[in-house]
Design a protein that fits this description.
The protein has 4 helices and 2 strands; from the N terminus they run E-E-H-H-H-H. It is mainly α. Helix 1 crosses helix 3 (about 50-60).
Length: about 80
C-alpha cells in the first residue's frame, strides 16, 4: 500500500492507501507517544510493519508541510 491524498477523506490529509489511517497519526504515535513501529502495528492492526515505515518515511520527507500546517493534536 502507498500514501494517498483524497479530498473526500480526511480533508485531503495523507493516509495509508485502503485504510484511511492518517500519516500524521502514525507519526504522532512514534514521535510524541513513544511507540516503536512494532507497537504501532498493534495500535493499527490494518497496517503492516512496512506500512508504518512507509508512513514515517513520508512524514520525514515532508516534515515541513506537517509542521507548518495548522494541525489539531492527533489522537492515538
Amino acid at each position: 500500500m502507498g500514501i494517498v491524498r483524497d479530498s473526500e477523506h480526511s480533508d485531503g490529509a495523507p493516509t495509508i492507501e485502503e485504510t484511511g489511517i492518517r500519516v500524521k497519526d502514525i507519526a504522532s504515535a512514534y514521535e510524541h507517544s513513544g511507540y516503536d513501529p512494532d507497537e504501532i502495528t498493534q495500535l493499527y492492526p490494518d497496517l503492516s510493519l512496512s506500512d508504518v515505515h512507509r508512513a514515517l518515511a513520508y512524514y520525514y520527507d515532508h516534515i515541513g508541510d506537517f509542521r507548518s500546517a495548522s494541525s489539531e493534536p492527533a489522537s492515538v
